[in-house]
Automatic annotation (TrEMBL):
This is LysR family transcriptional regulator. CDD domains: PBP2_LTTR_like_6 (cd08423). One of its GO terms (molecular function) is DNA-binding transcription factor activity. It comes from Nocardioides immobilis. Belongs to the LysR transcriptional regulatory family.
Length: 308
């Protein structure tokens, strides 16, 4: 029988792309990770990684095995969690992942509300992007994840993961200048000659910007990139370019304004994703708290609407 510890190590090596980084995250030595992978290779009678002096590359067999083992690892982790909670006398635990903007704007109020009604639940929060959070959710490293998706970017998530839609955001063009100087809506085609500030290449935000601009017959000229919307707004406020941001990423302030895109149907939605093995009562309680936080935030925010 395959050792689940070795399968978990394999999954972490694939996620990090490095034996050394996998060892650091798992609390092992580099040689221990190498030994575990070597044992798996002998058991399976196939190579899991192609190695050279400076890097490793996963074989198709490694990717297949890691993908198929997610559910089993998650179930075993759930068993370990339940036994640990029983032995430690802890009433419950909630491990939450969230992307940075939600962590700043929505999660604090949600966690405050949740802790007020569930003082004996131990809450742990980690921050990452959705493409990192979903594998952690599937393998039960976390119980819940606050994630997002754009309607213009196809997103495939595991079928075993439940999602609850909470918020819908317009995409806003932000520019230097006061709100009184800018219209409530802007025709994207008139911005063809502008310099843009965008998220990093390979992100959903960058893909949406290209999609919308190409639909208007031009390619956006991007000179600055950052996944931090505070940095983006600082660059825009300094007159270095304009940007397209989801509504949650816009913080009104002096020297900057935002406008919706005229005639656009593009949007981003925020969801809470949950593991099928997470305690349902705890999951539902947090989702309720998160909805209350969203309901308190949305009325005063430009371009944000709650989803019932």
């Amino acid at each position: 029988m395959l050792n689940p510890v070795h399968l978990r190590t394999l999954a972490m090596v694939l996620r990090t792309g490095s034996f050394a980084e996998a060892a650091r995250r798992l609390g092992y030595t580099g040689s221990a990770v190498s030994q575990q992978i070597a044992i798996l290779e002998r058991q399976l009678k196939t190579a899991l990684f192609e190695r050279d002096a400076h890097s490793i590359s996963a074989t198709p067999a490694a990717e297949f095995i890691a993908a198929r083992s997610h559910t089993a690892i998650g179930a075993l982790q759930a068993l370990e969690d339940n036994i640990s909670l029983l032995m430690d006398g802890v009433v419950g635990r909630l491990r939450l992942g969230s992307f940075p903007t939600a962590s700043e704007r929505l999660v604090p109020a949600a966690l405050s509300s949740f802790k007020a009604s569930h003082p004996d639940i131990d809450v742990q929060l980690d921050e990452a992007e959705p493409q990192e959070l979903m594998p952690q959710l599937e393998s039960r490293e976390i119980d819940l994840a606050v994630v997002y998706r754009y309607n213009l970017v196809p997103t495939a998530w595991p079928k075993t993961v439940r999602t609850d839609r909470v918020l819908r955001e317009d995409l806003l063009v932000i520019r230097a200048g006061g709100g009184a100087e800018q219209p409530g809506e802007v025709d994207l085609s008139v911005l063809a000659g502008e310099t843009w500030v965008s998220t990093r290449e390979g992100t959903s935000g960058a893909a949406v910007l290209r999609h919308l601009c190409r639909a208007q017959g031009f390619e956006p000229s991007v000179s600055f990139r950052s996944n931090n919307y505070s940095v983006t707004q600082g660059l825009v406020r300094a007159g270095l370019g304009i940007a397209l941001v989801p509504a949650l990423g816009y913080a009104p302030g002096p020297g900057i304004s935002a406008a919706r895109i005229a005639g656009s149907t593009a949007f981003r939605e925020i969801l809470v994703a949950s593991s099928p093995t997470a305690p349902r009562s705890v999951v539902d309680a947090f989702i309720g708290s998160f909805r209350r936080s969203a309901n308190g935030f949305a009325p005063d925010a430009l371009g944000v609407a709650t989803i019932s």
